[in-house]
């Protein structure tokens, strides 16, 4: 089953080489992964919205979308038609060019990062030797386009949402990137394929002490990077109307929505690749394992949205700078010690250091709960 997609791809390439000129055959070979990504990305976004709406509905004791198509399966298509036909409203004092370009440009990096994700054995668009670095660099550009949209809207709510987004994403980008360093140290490569191949069978990095902590940090930072609850301050509707996309409607708003959900899929896929063995697993085809792990993480993100309240701004920033960053530095050192010791005690030693670190950081960052006030009343005689 794993080889089916590879055989189809190779058959098309061989046909192109036999029938077409060499230069055109090269173009056809390049177009195959591009077309696959261009189709898979938007379709994934469409049905992730349906899954989230269904899941949140069940959490809230509702049915969710169930009118358009069997079980509401055609609801994403109806939403797409609605977005395409809605009026595009642009504020009079907005920067028209930046207002137009921001939602278009934000989709580009969201699509590009699909290229370095190994969906299964021999199922990757391009195996870059700097795959992880490419992913992190491309995903980091999202901050620029969000702030561009906020600034171009000429709206105080949009600007506040954009500023919050920049502060949040830069703050969480640091532990997000550093949490991958232990894996790169152990594997010795930035290639996503090499990282997956370094976790054969069930020898996933998450089952090591430093891998478990790295997984926790990476996943939490990934949730913050895509502005998901409880880190959705840039879109705090109770304070900022809709945040940075307040002044967007129709298809422009849909492009922001598309980029967000594609980012949800890609960061979950990267977490699965780096810490959960990617497509490694017994019995089932490799691509099934990859999608199973990825969608499990996505469902956890959606569960967060239906469960946790939104953090305050000081709690959000303090958690990144006062807890996650310090824990990330310790985890890098622990991973290096674990790698060099190569003894039966390395797991126990690494676990002990990390547990002590977490307890100390927790005590330093423990919020003081004020004592209950006692009111004394003066009663007239």
Automatic annotation (TrEMBL):
It is an enzyme of class 7 (translocase). InterPro entries: NADH_UbQ_OxRdtase_su1/FPO, NADH_UbQ_OxRdtase_su1_CS. The keyword Membrane applies. It catalyses: a quinone + NADH + 5 H(+)(in) = a quinol + NAD(+) + 4 H(+)(out). One of its GO terms (cellular component) is plasma membrane. The keyword Transmembrane helix applies. It is found in: Cell membrane; Membrane. One of its GO terms (molecular function) is NADH dehydrogenase activity. It comes from the Bacteria. The chain crosses the membrane at residues 23-48, 100-120, 132-153, 174-196, 202-224, 261-280, 286-304, 316-339, 345-364. One of its GO terms (biological process) is aerobic respiration. Its main location: membrane. Keywords: Cell membrane, Membrane, NAD, Quinone, Translocase, Transmembrane, Transmembrane helix, Ubiquinone. It is a multi-pass membrane protein. Its EC number is 7.1.1.-. NCBIfam families: PRK06076.1-2. NDH-1 is composed of 14 different subunits. Subunits NuoA, H, J, K, L, M, N constitute the membrane sector of the complex. NDH-1 shuttles electrons from NADH, via FMN and iron-sulfur (Fe-S) centers, to quinones in the respiratory chain. The immediate electron acceptor for the enzyme in this species is believed to be ubiquinone. Couples the redox reaction to proton translocation (for every two electrons transferred, four hydrogen ions are translocated across the cytoplasmic membrane), and thus conserves the redox energy in a proton gradient. This subunit may bind ubiquinone. Belongs to the complex I subunit 1 family. This is NADH-quinone oxidoreductase subunit H.
């Amino acid at each position: 089953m794993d080889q089916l997609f590879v055989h189809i791809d190779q058959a098309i390439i061989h046909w192109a080489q036999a029938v077409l000129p060499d230069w055109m055959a090269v173009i056809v070979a390049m177009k195959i992964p591009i077309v696959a990504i261009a189709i898979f990305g938007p379709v994934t976004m469409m049905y992730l919205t349906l899954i989230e709406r269904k899941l949140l509905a069940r959490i809230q004791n509702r049915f969710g979308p169930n009118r358009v198509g069997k079980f509401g399966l055609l609801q994403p298509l109806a939403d797409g038609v609605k977005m395409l036909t809605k009026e595009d409203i642009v504020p009079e004092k907005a920067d028209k060019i930046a207002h137009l370009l921001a939602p278009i440009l934000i989709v580009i990096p969201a699509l590009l990062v699909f290229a370095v994700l190994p969906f299964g054995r021999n199922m990757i668009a391009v195996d870059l030797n700097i795959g992880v670095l490419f992913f992190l660099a491309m995903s980091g550009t999202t901050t620029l386009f969000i702030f561009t949209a906020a600034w171009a809207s000429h709206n105080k709510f949009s600007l506040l949402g954009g500023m919050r987004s920049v502060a949040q994403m830069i703050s969480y980008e640091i532990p997000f990137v550093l949490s991958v360093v232990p894996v790169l140290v152990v594997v010795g490569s930035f290639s996503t394929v090499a990282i997956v191949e370094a976790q054969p069978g069930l020898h996933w990095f998450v089952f090591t002490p430093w891998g478990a902590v790295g997984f926790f940090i990476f996943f939490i930072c990934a949730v913050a990077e895509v502005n998901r609850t409880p880190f959705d301050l840039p879109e705090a509707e109770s304070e900022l109307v809709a945040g940075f996309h307040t002044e967007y409607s129709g298809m422009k708003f849909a492009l922001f929505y598309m980029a967000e959900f594609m980012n949800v899929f890609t960061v979950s896929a990267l977490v699965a690749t780096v810490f959960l063995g990617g497509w490694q697993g017994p019995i089932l085809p490799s691509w099934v394992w990859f999608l199973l792990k990825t969608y499990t993480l996505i469902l956890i993100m959606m569960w967060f949205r239906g469960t946790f309240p939104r953090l305050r701004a000081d709690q959000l920033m303090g958690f990144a700078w006062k807890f996650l960053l310090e824990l990330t530095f310790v985890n890098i050192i622990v991973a290096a010690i674990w790698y060099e010791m190569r003894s039966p005690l390395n797991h126990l030693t690494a676990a002990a250091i990390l547990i002590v670190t977490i307890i100390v950081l927790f005590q330093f960052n423990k919020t003081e709960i004020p004592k209950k006030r006692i009111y004394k009343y003066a009663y007239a005689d």
